[in-house]
Amino acid sequence: MSTGLVSQDTIVALATSPGANGAIAVIRLSGLQAITITNGVFKGKDLLSAPSHTIHFGTIRDGEELIDEVLVSLFKGPHSYTKEDVVEISTHNSTYIIERLIGLLIKKGARAAQAGEFTLRAFLNGGMDLSQAEAVADLIASENKASHEIAMNQMRGGISNKLQQMREQLINFTALLELELDFGEEDVEFADRAQFEALIQELKVHIVKLIQSFAYGNAIKHGVPVAIIGKPNAGKSTLLNTLLDEERAIVSDIAGTTRDTIEESINLEGITFRFIDTAGLRETADTIEAIGVTKAKEKVRQAKVLLYLYDDKDNTAEEVILQIKELYYEGLIVILVRNKIDLEGGYYPNDMDTAIKDALFPDYSDSLVGISAKDTNSVEGLKNILLDKIREMAIEDQHIITNTRHVEALQHALDALEQVEQGLDMQLPGDLLAHHVRGALRYISSITGDIDVDRDILGTIFGKFCIGK
Ligand code: GDP
């Protein structure tokens, strides 16, 4: 790579969480001098003669002063995370020990690592491609089964392999197109245009699927935003409380989580649902009347799912139909929820529910459920609908894109492929076609970093990591 970012420095950082209460901290070094520098402060076995992938007990000393008893793990490049020599020192988890040890290693020639620098080196040294490196950050940030699964798949090269296949197919064709150019005036076609067109079609289908998967991927990664809307006294806060109640016991056990943010989300079978803007809902009645239609629309705009609550005493079917049409936007999942079915005469479904269904299915919604918001069992059906709706977004056996950078690159690649397609229709000469194909290739390759990636882009990507990763 000609990014000029690979440096000869040996870097050092705390690899475990700073300030956490755990028993052990791990300090990591990577670079040419990693083993020599560690050996200079370590009393125990001579690390320079120790084989790779071995662990050694000993002490760290600053001159005569004993700093800690430690375990040192050795990984000799290229058989390490960064592909360089890597040393991991497990110390007792004391802020004092960590500071002293890192200070000592810096004094002996290491340099403090920047955010994401270990993973950046892994990428620059060919240990992983860019999308895999990004997945490392996602994996570390993953908080539930679904986001963990997607990040793990991406880290292990799921998306890279798919993109690699596409690249190879395109490269083969560009090579043939370019060969035609060598023959100049002679009117030869090495690249079969019909086959080429079929290939472009096939690639477009793959890319469109990947782009579509982003809606799901993004929802999984950041949680599915849900808006609860309805008239005053429809039971919005009651429903929210019922949904949150079961979770609360689990949530409050997680040390270090902020209750304020966690409280308003639930985790259903590994998928997080975030109830947006619920502050108003809890204190005042967050109703269309109270917050105004524009505000309600804004709120719904931020949501992927709208839970619209009504009941058969305070609402009319016309009102509900009108408001859903007003609030709807393309792609919004609308779940109509008729509340208070436990009240006398509140049986479900009644004529009102049927009228609403008739007017709104299937263009605005395809889910209507009757509940009693006060009753946990009754809310189960609603939970299942929520889960089903999100799972429907996932395409079977499909790689899932969770990264905005990737989806943008894919969109550009798709545009370029469309230009190739138009070019084929217009029977453009090979050099012009090759130009558009190279454009598509550039965008596809930028996802995995198979072309030189701008320093600024790398800076942005790896800057999001913490120091030590
Ligand atoms: P909000 O204004 O939409 O947030 O409505 P609330 O959740 O504050 O509920 C308004 C009133 O309806 C309260 O007195 C609730 O106890 C009551 N309520 C909510 N859900 C139900 C239900 O399923 N059945 C019955 N019988 N009452 C309910």
Automatic annotation (TrEMBL):
It is an enzyme of class 3 (hydrolase). GTP binds at residues 233-238, 252-258, 277-280. Keywords: Cytoplasm, GTP-binding, Hydrolase, Magnesium, Metal-binding, Nucleotide-binding, Potassium, tRNA processing. Exhibits a very high intrinsic GTPase hydrolysis rate. Involved in the addition of a carboxymethylaminomethyl (cmnm) group at the wobble position (U34) of certain tRNAs, forming tRNA-cmnm(5)s(2)U34. Belongs to the TRAFAC class TrmE-Era-EngA-EngB-Septin-like GTPase superfamily. TrmE GTPase family. NCBIfam families: mnmE_trmE_thdF, PRK05291.1-3, small_GTP. This is tRNA modification GTPase MnmE. It comes from Sphingobacterium phlebotomi.
